[in-house]
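Customer escalation, tier 2.

The customer says the design service returned an amino acid string that "doesn't look like it belongs to this structure." They asked us to rerun it and document both sides in this ticket. The original structure tokens are below, unchanged.
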């Protein structure tokens, strides 16, 4: 009887289908960071089974761990290629996203070594200034076609900086910059929007959308007030002990919370070592059925305390829901002062995991 993380693969599949249906081109599945903490070895084959044929990870090691699970699909590494990795990329049929000339040089050398053309995705920087070919590097590519010798450009991609703010003028600026860059690659296929970008309008359409967060139920943030995605996970934990605390007595490390009335405090075995962030101290809300219960005191490494005074019937063994339909990763993120992405990718390794819809 431990904390339980239930992941609904059918809901993830439904989210992919919904995104795919509204996009004119193809839709990939971004499964980096272990599918945002939910388990890439479960998520990727599920997406493959419903027709997803393009996958992205951040690192080569992540791509290697799912390569055999998505046979026949394109599997690409967003962070690009490092010295010493080229042979493994080519041997396992993994595509590097190259956003710098030195990366292209590594991949070109591998194509020459193998004596065959190798697929590449070119990443063009249009304003994020993190990864991607700069205007100067694009000019060098334009003037020296040899820089792509032996390489077959599968897609030219870019990435949005402010997609979750629909009114930010940065979005239109990046769309214009991408269109301008594409004039250099006539006929090449494009890859543009992430989850939020897919909701920004047809200008942000492309041959391959790259949603991650929305697959996992995170609000793409463009239908204000209403998350169009289905929730995909539930995190619950049993009450270990219940403590009666008198007015004036404090709870937890540092005595950060003091009872104002006779209180019942429930302790659960989830803490910051499980990705239940320390910043949630005195801020988070859990649920018992429809009733919210406030987190009181600090979050410690392995334990957290909740004020269940309003629920006199609760007993040790009853489960509190920490993440669920009433209170998703985005709501918990607001309480923690972060975003839903960080909540998901820091979900702990100590939870019992149960997959539905496998
Ligand atoms: C992570 C990532 C995505 C997916 O972004 P979401 O906001 O999670 O949909 C797409 N493209 C690139 C380059 C990324 O790094």
């Amino acid at each position: 009887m431990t904390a339980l993380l239930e992941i609904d693969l059918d809901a993830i599949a439904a989210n992919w289908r919904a995104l795919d249906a509204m996009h004119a081109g193809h839709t990939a599945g971004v499964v980096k960071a272990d599918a945002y903490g939910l388990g890439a070895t479960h998520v990727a084959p599920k997406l493959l089974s419903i027709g997803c044929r393009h996958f992205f990870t951040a690192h080569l090691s992540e791509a290697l761990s799912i390569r055999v699970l998505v046979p026949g699909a394109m599997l690409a590494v967003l962070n690009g290629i490092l010295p010493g990795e080229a042979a493994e990329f080519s041997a396992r049929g993994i595509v590097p996203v190259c956003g710098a000339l030195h990366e292209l040089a590594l991949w070109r050398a591998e194509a020459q070594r193998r004596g065959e053309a190798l697929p590449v995705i070119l990443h063009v920087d249009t304003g994020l200034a993190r990864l991607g070919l700069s205007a100067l590097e694009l000019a060098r590519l334009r003037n020296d076609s040899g820089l792509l010798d032996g390489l077959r450009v599968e897609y030219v991609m870019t990435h949005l900086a402010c997609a979750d703010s629909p009114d930010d003028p940065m979005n239109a600026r990046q769309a214009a910059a991408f269109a301008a860059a594409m004039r250099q690659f006539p006929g090449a296929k494009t890859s543009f929007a992430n989850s939020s970008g897919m909701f920004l309008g047809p200008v942000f359409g492309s041959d391959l959308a790259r949603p991650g967060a929305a697959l996992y139920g995170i609000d793409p943030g463009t239908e204000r007030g209403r998350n169009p995605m289905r929730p995909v996970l539930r995190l619950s934990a049993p009450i270990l002990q219940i403590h009666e605390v008198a007015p004036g007595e404090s709870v937890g490390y540092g005595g950060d919370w003091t009872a104002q009335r006779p209180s019942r405090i429930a302790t659960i075995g989830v803490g910051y070592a499980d990705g239940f962030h320390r910043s949630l101290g005195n801020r988070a809300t859990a649920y018992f059925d429809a009733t919210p219960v406030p987190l009181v005191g600090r979050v410690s490494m392995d334990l957290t305390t909740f004020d269940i005074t309003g629920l006199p019937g609760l007993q040790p063994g009853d489960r509190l829901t920490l993440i669920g339909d009433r209170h998703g990763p985005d709501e918990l993120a607001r309480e923690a002062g972060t975003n839903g992405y960080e909540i998901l990718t820091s979900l702990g390794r100590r939870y019992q995991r149960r997959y539905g819809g496998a």
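Tier 2 assessment: The sequence is consistent with the input. The longest strand covers residues 233-245. The domain at 9-216 is CATH 3.20.20.10 (TIM Barrel). Sent an explanation to the customer and offered a walkthrough call.
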